[in-house]
Every structure is written in structure tokens, then in C-alpha cells.
Amino acid sequence: MLAALDRIGARWGLARAELAFAAFLVFAFGSGVQAHLMPSVYPLTRLTTDGLLLVVVGGLLAFVYRRARDPRLLYWGGVTYLGTFALEAIGVATGLIFGEYHYGPTMWVQWLGVPLVIALNWTALILATNHLAGALLRHPLAISAAAALLIVGYDYCIEPVAIRLDYWQWHAGYIPTQNYLAWGLIALVFSLPLNYLNIRFRHPLLLVYALAQLAFFLLLLALFSPSR
Length: 228
Prior knowledge:
By secondary structure, the protein is mostly helical. The protein contains 8 helices and 4 strands; from the N terminus they run H-H-H-H-E-E-E-H-H-E-H-H.
């Protein structure tokens, strides 16, 4: 059994522990779909969203750094976390960045009206989109621009379900174009140093995470009843 797992891991460039974490990612988001559709479980699911995201994203970033062993990745990650959190806080307070919105209680561990895990997700998604873009392109500017476009497309896909789950709400009742422009610009700004400084970060788990999370939102979008 272990030999078979090692062969699978080798095929995807994953060590045994990394393969186990990949399976955990798929299980966590897959079971999350079911939990969100079960009325008896959903209240508990809302209470555990922050903790689950912390475990998932924190574990992911730990595996990424463990393989990269690039101290600059720690500095980049710290700046990206603090920078995206600050932009979210300014956005919530003023409406000038993304448009007028507020975060709901689903992610309830918040400061300045912003969930503490949201900037971790920003950090992971920027890494994931740059990982994918870097597999297709070579020039740092092209990679950064492609990653920005990918993250805008990602946000476009998740917005309807995120609103239904009360992750956040738009005061205007619709998603402003300003939001997508802001997502793209922010992703571009934080992608540029990642690529121009050639910081080591690429890891197959980044794609597993991004695809599992995207599948979570798309499946819920397909399965939610119109009345919910």
C-alpha cells in the first residue's frame, strides 16, 4: 500500500506527507460541500470555518516553505499578509478599493471588520496562480500579469456562493466592476516581486488547494436550491 502511494506521489512530485495533505485538502473541501448542504450540520459548519481555513492554508504554506527553503519567501509572505489585510481593512472602512462591502459572521474571527484568515487566503491564492502562470510563461512580467488575470477569474467564480454563505455582502446589491479591477491590481503588485526576485515557492500542493477550493464553490453554486 505504501509503495503504491509512493509511486503516486512520485508521479505528481509529492512526498508521502505531501500526498497525505493533498488528500486532506480534497477531503476537507469535499466534505465542506456536503456540510453546507445539510441544515442540521450547517450551524456548526459556520462556527468552524475560520479554524478549518487556518489549518488548511497554514498547513499548505508550511509545506511550500519546507520545500522552498528560501528565507525571502517568509519576508514576501509576511508583507503580502499584512499588505492584503491592510487593503481589506481600508476597503471595508471606506469602500474606495473594492467597492462598498462588509464581511458577514461566517468568518467570525475578525479585526477591523476583516477576518484574520482572509489575508492568508490571499497569500495562498497569489502563490497558486503564479505557480500555474509560471508553468506556462517565462518572463516575470508576463507571469505576474497572467496570475492577476487568473485570480480575477477565480474571484468571478466564487463571488455568488461567497455572498450566499454570507462571507461578505455588497451594499449596492451587486458586485461592482471596481472589485475585479482591485483584485487584479493587488495580485499584480504582490506577484511582481515574487517573480522578479525569483523567489522559490512552486509546489504542486498550491494547485491542489486552488482547484479544491474552486471546486467547493462551483459545486455549491450548482447544488444550492434557488430559494436558499
